[in-house]
């Protein structure tokens, strides 16, 4: 090589090396009744397209243990994520798929020592779930109309699904029994409410991905904080009290251009994390 070529080579290597150092580590949290294996495609694609990225793929609460309560999972996985975060003072990025996105939000709201730059919620029931699609993965015999009889009880709250089951016809029971969703949504005020909001507002970016052909998250708009009113008509996030009253900071994130609502048609719930084009088009652009 000539001296000029050598110098150019050194310069380019330095630039590439620098770039690889600037990708923040990514933590992946899997969905219900599955495990870290289901998130390998996302992990591999990030590592391929953003060389040098460290990707942590959470392998706790796989398979049947994914049905353990939401708070238990938030606190356990949150301790791991806090450990990871403490090793990376520049911050981390967090991606949760399906139930994993709702666990991830619990972690963001609860752990002041977890420093998340971008949080991507990939088709997660952020505003709750009221639909048979989801139910039948785990409880084949239950129908949505009567599922509340199980979930809105002390026993029913011992399953993750019960913790975010939100029957629009039984709002009072939901408020009395549900120990997770109404709290992390600051629908019910608690001693933690202020911290929940404050921690959410530490996000640099919140990306809510969902789509009309999901067929499991019901209503699908729940992936973007939309939900049913008392008559099962969907009200979009910007018409919801959680947004209008800025309960957890969604409105502030929106006004400061940190909230990204991403709607992708043509994707079934079980394929979001299996589709390379989803990673390329909707995850990678937010990971820096
Ligand atoms: C966090 O890190 C500490 C110190 O390295 C270790 O003792 C502890 O077991 C870790 N906790 C988790 C949940 O990984
Ligand atoms: C993070 O904070 C929690 C309390 O919220 C604490 O139990 C945990 O040890 C902390 N972890 C690290 C790594 O600082
Ligand atoms: C639901 O429908 C009933 C009957 O049409 C109506 O009286 C009620 O106001 C509606 N409630 C909502 C929240 O739209
Ligand atoms: C994969 O994602 C793209 C959007 O990026 C979508 O158009 C396509 O239908 C998806 N493929 C499958 C098999 O879901």
Automatic annotation (TrEMBL):
Keyword Protein biosynthesis part of the UniProt annotation: no
Pfam name, any one: Palm_thioest
EC number: 3.1.2.2
Reactions catalysed according to its record: S-hexadecanoyl-N-acetylcysteamine + H2O = N-acetylcysteamine + hexadecanoate + H(+)
UniProt entry tagged with the keyword Transcription regulation: no
Gene3D superfamilies: alpha/beta hydrolase
Subcellular location: Lysosome
Example of a GO MF term: thiolester hydrolase activity
Known role: Catalyzes the cleavage of thioester bonds from S-palmitoyl-CoA or S-palmitoyl-N-acetylcysteamine (unbranched structures) but does not have activity against palmitoylcysteine or palmitoylated proteins, branched structures or bulky head groups. Conversely, hydrolyzes both long and short chain fatty acyl-CoA substrate.
The name this protein goes by in its record: palmitoyl-CoA hydrolase
